[in-house]
Design brief:
Chain lengths: 351, 636
């Protein structure tokens, strides 16, 4: 899950800014709760098409869905595509939307009414997309054969792969540091790579032998990051991604697909894994507990995400109904989206 | 010539069955009458027969819809009728109906493109506008394999050409007509370039050849850019020249980049054989063109393609054994591999009554590859399992990740419901393995296996067809058999047991299976190997004589620490193969690095040259993609 804070909350990077961030975040939430309006919009990228194969007629509704907190349901908008993998918004202009799909990268400048596929034929199968909140004209695109960057709001793309290995630059996830312009972390086949100059050069900050599947920056502390991998387990960084420490309390033999923070509670984190299902921590990642009771048998957790307005934990079970939990995984209820696999959860500040 | 002695019997039985059940069908001479494999010397007669086959396929297709007065006609039949100028009003109505629910992806795009072009001066304005509207509003997927991209980009190229000078708002992807044309052209030229310099990706596919040939034919006929027309026509020649070379009596055999559970054992079933039937007339069709469904689309424009004389003769006029060594390339490897695309080194040895083919082993396409086999000729190949091979039934989530943007777990079980039902089965006969290495010299194959014991199925499967005769498990360890008139000697290097061979009648449900009557030799040992020696029926007077000859051949092997074989073949050539090491034949290392793109009696091309020379006797044709010229030559 990628989270945009209220722009006015953004502060220059300082070592103790995490505490300040929490304070401002809490204050913002309090103010907005007094007005009755949710502070955030909550989106998912969902494919609802069990056993779809290329050539099949698409008979379901797929793509972007937004949580309607009043109707308490997911509402589809934008296009219908079974292959959506990620979404990002321009923090200055919510009508500017970037999504990745099998075809590549789709950009809308009118809130999803119309779209343009802006990648060239040799930049396809987009995996992830991220906007630099401190330099929002710059957008990063994760590709199975590297990384592309746009400096004109997604109209044109260029490869920026200096420092990535010739082989091993399969990029599954890409995340911008929300406080420092040009600082980006990429989860690749050969580890985590960081740039501090908008992708002009990359350096490896965590080596791996298999793919880094997800990277997340804490909404409470910009220095704190989580990473999960195919066969190296889960990792955390407390220095903005410069160094990493494995989370020993989580199993590491099988793949972990994604990780999330709870924007409403700085102590709560969760991960999703096909093999292990859903695990949560409520003490800032010190201890972790399996939370599969009440979910369908066989784990197959595809993604977890947290509603930033309510703290409700969601678990997407592969091609099953989306599940939700109001007690952070202790009990689960089926929500909606029967037959879905949710590829991304995203929270966007309403301001 | 090998007449189809049983074909009349089959036709008679079928006719009886149809009469008995009251079913009516369109006349299908290619199914009902014997097929001659004689060379047709007269160009006019040959061309006439070619056009007869075009007409037969077309008539069959549109005949399927006649009873309903063409109200449920599909895109292929519609394109045929539009090209003929028939049933236009029915086509108008059907277009309007179909365009209310447009499909997605290349398999909808190219048929619709075909209808759009075939009907551009015949369909009503309303029908043409319905097609145009679908291309404005319906999002299309480019797919995830090379054949998808050929169809996708061809369709985008041609539709952008049909509707030029329109802004992005008029296209589903937001690109203008000129941007779509350039995108399509960019991909197509790049693909054509690498295919003619370092080899085809989906090489020798049993079914996907249609997904290449049909778009290329469309481009060769409908592209306005003369360079694109020329390139596409030349690449069709290229594709069909290789088809002519590697088929046995018109039948596609291994190795194959991609095949399927049926075609890998019933070699006749492959769609590739439709192209032999259409182009060369040397293989019989099935009832209702069973298995050859894409041929109807090729038939729409088939009259615009002329089979070059030299290609026809390679397919039909076989005067000597063929030893062809070629390069191709694997599916592109996103991760977990040192190369973006692995070079594939194919060896093809074709004789009058059988053929042996292989590549070097290892990963090519993770799901549907077929690495090696011996396939024999039969009078009527329909329903016959005329092949023998062994393989490691490899299944791996991590290997899937090499080739697809996926996670380790979902794909192995998932693809079994996506038309690849055997993928996750220990008994499968389809697929390649990173733990297999193959050495072929003429009609001898040595396949070695050093399988990771922790892999899902650490065993070797050998296919023993229901159609084999005289199968004998000799105390020496050799298994002897006869396929047609071909003698076969199969030597497993580790203990084995037998299991029934099963097929998947419902291609999308792996739980529904039927036994075929064939058997799978299952050797449950991770260090393993197979030796196969084939020989022509004319070489030995009896099976006993063949057995005696095989038993006299020098053979030694070891399985630990790695499998290795030293074997002197029936051709007197010593093969030394050790897993993980360079193989030797008669003391000379096999140096794949020096292999040409094509090298053999009929096809020759240097790597990176972009030039293919096709020869048969004194006939020759040079396809030069540097100058975009196709030149017929006389070989001195």
């Amino acid at each position: 899950m990628q989270l945009f804070l209220h722009r006015n909350c953004l502060t220059p990077r300082i070592r103790n800014r995490g505490r300040l961030g929490i304070l401002l975040f809490t204050l913002l939430g309090f103010v907005l709760s007094m007005t009755g309006a949710p502070a955030y919009d909550f989106f998912i990228c969902a494919n609802v098409n069990r056993n779809y194969v290329i050539g099949s007629k698409i008979v379901t509704t797929n793509g972007l869905f937004q949580r309607d907190p009043v109707a308490n349901e997911w509402k589809h908008f934008g296009y219908n595509d079974t292959t959506i993998s990620a979404v990002a918004f321009d923090p200055r202009d919510r009508d500017t939307i970037y999504t990745t799909t099998l075809n590549g990268i789709w950009v809308s400048y009118d809130g999803g009414d119309t779209w343009k596929m802006t990648n060239s034929w040799d930049m396809t199968e987009g995996r992830d997309v991220a906007v630099d909140p401190q330099a929002p004209d710059t957008v990063y695109l994760a590709l199975p054969d590297g990384i592309a960057v746009s400096i004109d709001r997604g109209q044109k793309w260029e490869r920026r792969e200096n420092g990535l290995p010739d082989r091993g630059k399969y990029t599954q996830t890409i995340e911008t540091d929300r406080e420092i312009a040009g600082r980006v972390l990429a989860g690749c086949e050969k580890g985590i790579f960081m740039t501090e100059d908008s992708g002009q050069s990359w350096r490896q900050v965590l080596p791996t032998e298999t793919t880094v599947n997800d990277l997340e920056q804490s909404p409470h502390d910009a220095e704190h990051w989580l990473a999960v991998t195919d066969t190296h387990g889960a990792w955390q960084s407390t220095d903005g991604g410069d160094s990493w420490r494995q989370i020993e309390a989580l199993p590491a033999e099988e793949a972990i697909y994604n990780a999330t923070y709870d924007p409403t509670d700085a102590k709560r984190q969760a991960i999703a894994s096909w093999a292990y299902g859903v695990w949560t921590s409520e003490d800032g990642g010190e201890t972790w507990t399996e939370r599969n009771r009440g979910l369908p048998d066989g784990a197959r957790a595809w993604r977890v995400g947290v509603d930033p307005n309510s703290g409700r934990l969601y678990a997407s079970i592969f091609q099953e109904t989306l599940y939700c939990s109001d007690d952070f995984g202790r009990t689960w209820q089926p929500d909606a989206m029967e037959g879905s696999s949710v590829n991304a959860f995203l929270s966007v500040s309403r301001d | 010539m090998k007449p189809f002695t049983s074909i009349l019997k089959t036709a008679a039985l079928t006719a009886f069955a149809l009469v008995a059940t009251g079913v009516t069908t369109t006349a299908q001479p290619s199914f009902e009458k014997p097929t001659s494999r004689e060379v047709v010397e007269s160009l006019d007669v040959r061309r006439g027969q070619y056009l007869d086959r075009v007409r037969e396929m077309q008539d069959h297709r549109i005949g399927l819809y006649r009873a309903e007065n063409f109200t449920k006609i599909d895109n292929s039949a519609m394109a045929i009728l539009l090209m003929r100028g028939e049933e236009i009003e029915a086509c108008n109505n059907r277009v309007l109906e179909l365009m209310q629910e447009p499909g997605t992806g290349p398999f909808w795009m190219f048929p619709t493109t075909m209808v759009a072009y075939a009907g551009r001066d015949k369909l009503s304005t309303e029908a043409q506008e319905a097609i145009r509207e679908a291309w404005r509003t319906t999002r299309q997927l480019r797919g995830d394999t090379e054949n998808h991209w050929v169809m996708y980009h061809t369709s985008m190229y041609l539709m952008a050409q049909l509707y030029p000078d329109e802004p992005g708002s008029e296209w589903w992807n937001g690109l203008s007509s000129s941007e779509n044309l350039e995108e399509g052209k960019g991909w197509l030229l790049d693909w054509m370039d690498i295919s003619t310099t370092i080899g085809q990706g989906e090489y020798n596919p049993t079914h996907y050849i249609g997904e290449y040939a049909i778009p290329l034919l469309m481009l060769s006929v409908w592209a306005e850019d003369p360079a694109m027309r020329q390139r596409s026509g030349m690449l069709l020649d290229w594709l069909f020249a290789e088809l002519a070379t590697v088929t046995l009596d018109g039948m596609m055999r291994g190795p194959n980049s991609r095949t399927d559970d049926t075609s890998v054992v019933e070699r006749w079933y492959a769609l590739a054989n439709y192209f032999s039937w259409q182009l060369f007339g040397n293989i019989p069709a099935g009832e209702g063109f069973r298995g050859w469904g894409w041929g109807n689309y090729f038939s729409v424009l088939a009259e615009y393609y002329t089979v070059p004389e030299v290609i026809y003769r390679i397919a039909v006029d076989r005067r000597a054994d063929i030893l062809q060594r070629d390069r191709a390339r694997s599916r592109r490897i996103w991760r977990y591999g040192d190369e973006h695309m692995r070079p594939i080194y194919k060896t093809q040895y074709l004789r009058n009554d059988y053929a042996v083919g292989s590549h070097q082993g290892g990963m090519s396409d993770p799901i549907q590859s077929h690495v090696w086999d011996v396939t024999w000729s039969v009078d009527d190949p329909r329903g016959v399992h005329n092949t023998m091979f062994s393989m490691h039934p490899h299944s791996s989530g991590k290997v899937m990740q090499m080739f697809f943007c996926t996670y380790p777990e979902p794909m192995p079980p998932g693809v079994t419901y996506e038309g690849k039902p055997s993928y996750n089965s220990a008994n499968k006969l389809l697929g390649c393995s990173p733990f297999e290495e193959v050495v072929q010299d003429l009609d001898t194959v040595v396949a070695l296996y050093d399988i990771d014991p922790s892999s899902d199925f650490p065993q070797v499967n050998g296919f023993f067809s229901k159609d084999l005769a005289d199968v004998t498990e000799h105390e020496s360890g050799w298994i002897f058999a006869r396929g047609g008139s071909t003698y076969l000697a199969y030597r497993p290097l580790a203990d084995y047991h037998w299991q029934p061979h099963i097929r998947y009648p419902n291609g999308r449900d792996p739980t529904i299976t039927e036994e075929t009557g064939g058997r799978i030799l299952t050797s449950p040992h991770s260090k393993n190997g197979t030796i196969l020696q084939a020989a022509d029926g004319d070489e030995f007077t009896t099976m006993a004589a063949f057995q005696a000859a095989i038993l006299a051949l020098p053979l030694s092997y070891e399985l630990d620490p790695v499998p290795s074989v030293r074997f002197t073949s029936l051709r007197g050539r010593e093969i030394v193969a050790k897993y993980g090491a360079t193989p030797y034949v008669d003391g000379q290392p096999i140096d794949y690095g020096n292999w040409k793109l094509f090298e053999g009696p009929h096809l020759n091309s240097e790597v990176d040259s972009g030039v293919l020379t096709i020869t048969h006797g004194q006939l020759g044709r040079v396809l030069d993609f540097n100058t975009l010229s196709a030149t017929d030559i006389v070989v001195e």
